[in-house]
Amino acid sequence: MSDLFKDILHGNESLFLNPQFLDSDFIPPIIKFRENEQQYIAECIKPLLMKRDGKNLLIKGSPGIGKTLASKHVLSELKKDSNDIFCVYVNCWKKDSSFKILNEICSQLNYKYVFNKSFDVLIKDISELINQKSFVIVLDEIDRLTDNTILYSLLEDIYRKSIIMITNDDEFLSNLDPRIRSRMIPETLDFKAYTADETDFILRERADYAFVKGVIDDECFELISEKAFEFKDLRTGLFLLKESGEIAESKSSRKIIPEHTMKALEKLNSSLIKEINDDNKDVIDLIKNNSGKTTAEIFKEYESKSGKSYRTFQRKIKDLEKMNIITLKEMNKGREGRSTIVEFNQKMLVDY
Predict the structure, then answer these.
(1) What one-character DSSP code corresponds to residue 294?
(2) What is the Cα Rg of the chain in Å?
(3) Of the candidates 247, 274, 301, which is a domain's last residue?
(4) 25 belongs to a structural domain
(5) In this structure, what is the dihedral angle of CA atoms 34, 40, 46, 52, given to the nearest 10 degrees?
(6) Cα–chain-centroid distance for residue 44?
(7) pLDDT value, residue 272
């Protein structure tokens, strides 16, 4: 055998049994600790089963706490229970315009007559197909949508539907065009971050399915679980589990030890820093110097220096929150209303 592959573990020596259990988009048969949230989503859809109009729903919460997973699981169960409802899931990060979303709807419904058609013609054609049944659409990362034409069209042209929107932007609804908001009148569902015990349980269950029994050191698992809880993001834990296993295998180790997990953490930190482009770095510097102030106060300074819009500022703030570089805290100031305090997480990011 070539020296290049001499020291690798053979197929029957792999540390992994079912690595797919560590994929962030893997949908387990039971979604732990999100039973109430799934029931709420299902209640919004249930009228469609009786051929009545469903309820629209806005799901809010920070990244990596099961919003997408729970929604996809409900759609999966709905498809098993009914043939009378079209179910569509779209990630607006990937499909960020009304026309892209419309084309994705056509693709998922296997409607192929899209070539050379304008938005108006295509929405009319696909609406005729959809209105033969009922319709549920999940629009994930809805705050990434660059225009709201698709929302207006779905609300106006589809007879029986539930539009489920997922966002980590608390102000998405208030920033929505009033004409759309008044037509939609969505229910709201807030997802809370997993507790330390819930995080530990979910990651341990995934690890039990993913790895050969006994290959992961307890100290490694505790470190990964603590880091996932610290980030309030289950995907961080899944990444660290998978990366630790792959690093161990690359070293021909038959056990995952702390050295492998520390390497995985280094990779995580490195990828975090790469996400900070020059523009975000300016925002970070601004927040570092104004930690503890409100988003409104920081935006005034950002606007005066960059000339960019509040929407751009808000998106960058949410990206930094997602990377756990900042923490946003809602404050109630009585008659002055609610405001959001921005705090810089010094321990999460050293000089970059």
Answers:
(1) B
(2) 23
(3) 274
(4) no
(5) -150
(6) 21
(7) 73
Tell me the three state secondary structure of residue 271: helix
Domain that holds residue 267: 3-16+196-274
- CATH classification at residue 121: 3.40.50.300
Burial (Cβ within 10 Å: 0-12, 13-18, ≥19) of residue 41: buried
Structure-block tokens of residue 38: 């799934």
Task: Please provide the DSSP assignment of 61-105 as one string.
Answer: --TTSSHHHHHHHHHHHHHHH-SSEEEEEEETTTS-SHHHHHHHH
C-alpha distances out from residue 21 to 199, 202, 207, 225, 242, Å: 15, 11, 8, 16, 9
Tokens encoding 118 = 């304008």
CA distance 15 to 36: 35
Could you tell me the pTM of the whole model?
A: 0.82
What's the CATH number where 7 sits? Answer: 1.10.8.60
Token look-up 């908001």 returns 181
Give the C-alpha distances (Å, rounded to integers) separating 344 from 98, 202, 216: 35, 29, 34
Per-residue pLDDT of the chain (352 residues; tens, 9 = 90+): 455 445 555 555 799 999 999 999 999 999 999 999 999 999 999 999 999 999 999 999 988 999 999 999 999 999 999 999 999 999 999 999 999 999 999 999 999 999 999 999 999 999 999 999 999 999 999 999 999 999 999 999 999 999 999 998 888 898 899 999 999 999 999 999 999 999 999 999 999 999 999 999 999 999 999 999 988 899 999 999 999 999 999 999 999 999 999 999 999 887 776 766 555 788 888 998 999 999 999 999 999 888 888 888 888 888 788 777 888 888 876 666 778 899 988 655 444 4
Q: How many domains does the chain have?
A: 3
Same domain (yes/no): 128, 140: yes
Partners of 16 in beta bridges: 211
Q: Identify whether the C-beta of residue 129 lies closer than 8 Å to the C-beta of residue 105.
A: no
Provide the 8-state DSSP code for 19. Answer: G
> Within this chain, do residues 141 and 205 fall inside the same structural domain, yes or no?
no
Strand ranges of the sheet holding 57-60, from the earlier edge strand across to the other edge: 85-91, 134-140, 161-167, 57-60, 187-190
